[in-house]
Each structure stands twice: as structure tokens, then as C-alpha cells.
Design a protein that fits this description.
Blueprint (H helix, E strand, L loop, with lengths): L3 E2 L14 H25 L3 H27 L5 E2 L3 H19 L1
Antiparallel strand pairs: 1-2
Helix pairs in contact: 1-2
């Protein structure tokens, strides 16, 4: 069984409106999507000036996303799960197989 890793959870009142936890989780989800889409834009833009503008924006959004994650983590609203050794070993084996295939 995998071990969950998290800070102590700060409980918030379950209300009809969005509470602090709901807002942070929604904001984090939105920031992840913006970061992903901005990264895609960086790979597709062909104008150097626009590329630099988007890169600056990406750096800003990436930093905000990391700060939001840190808030969610510190309040215990975001948890991680420790992977089982067997799953890690299997992933290593799969990746090594792909690497070997690419080397041929």
C-alpha cells in the first residue's frame, strides 16, 4: 500500500460557495493549464520577439503556479503518494527498453 505524504490538513467549512480550499485548488488547476498551453505556444512561435515575450510570461506563470502549489501543500490540501518500489523498477525497465530501441 502506498504511503501518502502531506502536511497537516487545515479543515475548511463545507459551504455552498467556494471556500479557501476550493479557490486555491481551482487556481492551481487553472495555472497548470496556462503553464501547459504557454509551453506549447513557445514551441510553435516563429517570431523571436514574440517568443521572448511568451517566455517571460511563461516564467511568471510558472512561478505563480509553484507559489500556489506551495500554499495548497502547506495547508494539507494537496497530497503526494509514495510510489511502490516495484512500480519504480518497472518504469525504469520500460524507459530503458525505449532508450535501447532509440539507440538501434
Amino acid at each position: 500500500m502506498a504511503t501518502k505524504i502531506a502536511c497537516d490538513k487545515v479543515e475548511v467549512e463545507a459551504i455552498r460557495e467556494m471556500n479557501d480550499r476550493d479557490l486555491i485548488v481551482d487556481l492551481l488547476s487553472s495555472e497548470k493549464a496556462i503553464t501547459t498551453n504557454t509551453a506549447i505556444a513557445l514551441t510553435e512561435v516563429s517570431n523571436d520577439k514574440l517568443h521572448n515575450t511568451i517566455l517571460d510570461f511563461f516564467d511568471t506563470v510558472k512561478d505563480i503556479q509553484a507559489e500556489t502549489y506551495e500554499i495548497a501543500w502547506n495547508f494539507g490540501w494537496y497530497t503526494l503518494e509514495e510510489s511502490e518500489v516495484s512500480k519504480i523498477k518497472q518504469k525504469e525497465k520500460d524507459l530503458q527498453t525505449k532508450l535501447d530501441e532509440l539507440s538501434n
